Amino acid sequence: MEVERPPEPVVGYSALLKNTTIRFKQSQSQRITVDDLVPGFQNHHPKLTHIAYAMPTSFLDQSSPDAALPDDTGRYGDFGGRYVPETLIAALDQLEEEYLAARQDPTFQSELDELLRDFVGRPSPLYFAKRLTQRCGGAQIWFKREDLNHTGAHKINSTIGQALLTLRMGKKRVIAETGAGQHGVATATACAHFGLPCIVYMGEEDIRRQSPNVQSMRTMGAEIRPVTTGSRTLRDAVNEAMRDWMGSVADTHYILGSVVGPHPFPMIVRDFQAIIGRETIEQSQTRFGRLPDAVVACVGGGSNAAGMFYPFVAETDVPLIGVEAGGHNDDRGQHASSLTFGKPGVLHGSFSYVLQDEDGQTDDVHSASAGLDYPGVGPEHSHWKKTGRVQYRSCRDDAALETFDLIARTEGILPALESSHAIATGMEVAQERGKDEIVVICLSGRGDKDAAEIQRLRGSEQF
Amino acid sequence: MSSIDDLFARLRSEGKKAFMPFVTAADPDLEFTQSLLKALDATGCHLAELGIPYSDPIADGPVIQASYTRALNGGVKLEAIFDMVANTTPQLSMPIVTMVSYAIIYRLGLDEYLKQAKAAGVAGAIVPDMPVDESAEFAAKCRAADFSLIQLITPTTTKQRAIEIAQQTTGFIYYVSIAGITGERTELPPDLLDNLRWLRQQTDLPICVGFGISKPEHVELLKPVADGMIVGSAIVRKIACAHPAEGGKTAATVITDVSDFARTMIDAM
Ligand SMILES: Cc1ncc(COP(=O)(O)O)c(C=O)c1O
Questions:
Q1: Predicted local distance difference test score (pLDDT) of residue A40
Q2: A73–B128: do the CB atoms touch at under 8 Å?
Q3: In which order are the strands placed within the sheet that holds B228-231?
């Protein structure tokens, strides 16, 4: 088997086993065989064919130990793993194996790259929010415009990749959960593109508050299954999708929408979303000749943030700030800030920070934004919190709503209510910094879907 | 030897099979659960699985889910469940095992969970969201405490993995009859008997079959290859009728209904 040779120092034996440790600049690579690196390796490790260590689209020298995660057991330090019924284990093994093979398959990568370019519209711009910057009076504020992707959010980066995986695994049917509906729309879109039948589980409460997205999904041929259990929001939609998958694993792929759930989902979704951070690094180098001074993203399950942060974690010491939903206030049940107020525990197949009571029952949570209204968070974020690599803050409903208006008026952009949380905190971060510094905020999605709900929340015709 | 090992040793020497009902703790309340456990014991059930209500049970179908929700809506806490169990087990001849999410065990603390369960007279645990790969720490503690940790094997489990799971299991193996969630099924999968026969050759542990079982015909079918049968949703559905919103039968009527059903199943054993 041929691989790309990493730059010096030469990669060692153990590094070869940890697929994610070894990424390198393509320009520095040359064709070599595995046996050149470690003689006889392939004979000892026939499984090596499944291990991707040459990612054609990748780029970075990764020196940070965190870049190597997850480990062989799907853990990010203490967090992650697979707390799921035995019935799902075979499907998770298959998914991991196929994904690792796909990751090193140039055909898969070029197909993905082409779709991201021609169908999704990547790269997404890095945009200078000039009037907002003037208004804040601190560092320059730049938006990474994931809202300009096809379907209007970052979610499509992962659904296109996972739909390709679905085809690769020979599976015939797709299920997904959705909160804000952005992931549902992105999944329905990918499925329509490939002609795959698609079923989306969505909480009744979310169907109500995100109705424009429900219409789009139906138009693209997806079947919406309303979820009436529990809090009738994202968490219950995940439960229902998992239950469907329990009985349909043989022919169905579950396109999970965030970096949550059992291994390998957090890794796969992060890797597909990492294009956000990679482009940001490249664009920063081109525009500024250097990296930003801080990077900010909102955290629901944590996929746009993980995608933005991961390449930075791997390569740099740029400060990273994740923003959780602060809801009404800090009381139990009034927010969705799992990292800020939660404790390590188990939810939806993963060991991570979670909002639970003292018996391990999941708390009902609140956020005005459906996409952040989730009591758990991806395991890698828990690890980044524990190691201190990422700082997590919390932003309340009212600040996010105010920011939504502000951005509409000062920049002519309707940010998603989720992204408005990142911007509100990003503005604070900018104010903490000097004028020649650069703060990049991930504008994860557009806010058209939210306009009606915001109007309802305000109980006025202000819009 | 835990009381579960004793039970199966006895049943084997008598050439008998175990009937194992599942009931949710505190649906509709703990007093009812206590009376029901006593009635099931008196009917001749061999072991009871007590479901600890959990807010996000991904392996459970609508019937058991709804039952957990009813119990939690009633405000039940783990401490009260263990109190009830502690008051009940001395009066039962059948062992009790808890069906409990790892989320709950972890939150309480692995050692603390074991301590409280043992003190309440619980003989073992089934942890449906803790596959064997994640079970090492808890399994070691259970072994040290002579507390059975019953692991699950399913139709999607590879053979090699099934053998590994069997090696890690104590008490009995829970063989999940179908790839899917809990709930009654009219038909059991055609390869179920073959799978069970294969598994029988791999281990001396008792093998009990659950998920989907609801009729005496199922018992007839499985009797030659299984050591026991677990029935959940078919029972929980009857219990639901004790709720004002779901039929509002009196507790006594529901307990009689469930006991009659259990007797029919035991008679088919
Ligand atoms: C626009 C947007 N941003 C953010 C999120 C939150 O998800 P995540 O934290 O996985 O990026 C969502 C979820 O629906 C979303 O639609």
A1: 53
A2: no
A3: B148-150, B124-126, B96-99, B48-51, B18-24, B228-231, B207-210, B173-176, B152-153
Structure tokens at A221: 């041929």
Structure tokens at A401: 């709503």
DSSP chain B: --HHHHHHHHHHHHT--EEEEEEETTSS-HHHHHHHHHHHHHHT-S-EEEEPP-S--TT--HHHHHHHHHHHHTT--HHHHHHHHHHHGGG-SS-EEEE--HHHHHHH-HHHHHHHHHHTT--EEE-TT--GGG-HHHHHHHHHTT-EEE-EE-TTS-HHHHHHHHHH--S-EEEESSSS-SS--SS--TTHHHHHHHHHHH--S-EEEESS--SHHHHHHHTTT-SEEEE-HHHHHHHHTTSGGGT---HHHHHHHHHHHHHHHHHH-
Looking at residue A374, its amino acid is Y
Residue A72 in contact with partner chain B when CB distance is under 8 A: no
- B93 in reach of chain A (CB within 8 A): no
What's the rounded Cα separation, in Å, for the pair B130 and B128? 6
Domains in chain B, ordered, with CATH?
3-267 (3.20.20.70)
Domain boundaries, given as residue ranges, for chain A? 1-62, 78-120+153-268, 126-151+274-460
Enter the tokens of residue B135.
């079970």
Helix (H/G/I), strand (E/B), else coil: A299: coil
Q: Indicate if the pLDDT at residue A269 is higher than 80.
A: yes
Q: What's the CA angle centered on B48, arms B42 and B51, to 5 degrees?
A: 135
Going from the Cα of A442 to the center of ligand 1, the distance in angstroms, rounded, reads 11
Distances (CA, A) of A128 to A133, A232, A305, A438, A458: 8, 38, 19, 10, 30
Alpha carbon distance A404, A420 (integer Å)? 6
CB pairs under 8 A between A and B: 117
* Fold entry, domain A126-151+274-460: Rossmann fold (3.40.50)
Phi then psi for residue A105, to 5 deg, are: -90, 115
Residue bearing the CA closest to ligand 1, atom 14: A371
Residue in A with minimal Cα distance to B60? A243
A386 vs A339: CA distance, rounded Å: 10
Q: Which of B98, B9, B112, B154 lies closest to A249 in space, CA to CA? A: B154
Q: Distance between CA atoms of A237 and A255, rounded to whole angstroms?
A: 13
Strands A2-4 and A31-33: antiparallel
**What's the complex ipTM?**
0.96
Which residues, other chains included, contact A424 with Cβ-Cβ below 8 Å and sequence gap of 6+? A323, A395, A399, A400, A402, A403
Condensed to tens digits (0 to 9), the pLDDT of residues A377-425 reads 999 999 999 999 999 999 999 999 999 999 999 999 999 999 999 999 9
Within 8 A by CB and 6+ apart from A322, the residues are A296, A297, A298, A299, A302, A305, A309, A339, A381, A384, A390, A391, A392, A393
CA distance B37 to chain A (A): 23
Query: Are B189 and B177 in contact, with CB atoms under 8 Å apart?
Result: yes
Q: Does residue A6 surpass a pLDDT of 50?
A: no
Whether A360 sits inside 8 A of B103 (CB atoms) is: yes
Mind telling me the catalytic residues of B? 49, 60
pTM (predicted TM-score)? 0.90
Helices (H), A262-301: 265-273, 275-288
User: What's the pLDDT band for A161 if we cut at 50, 70, 90?
Assistant: very high
| Domain A78-120+153-268: CATH class, spelled out | alpha beta
Q: Which of A359, A363, A382 to mutate to test the interface with B (most CBs of B within 10 A)?
A: A359
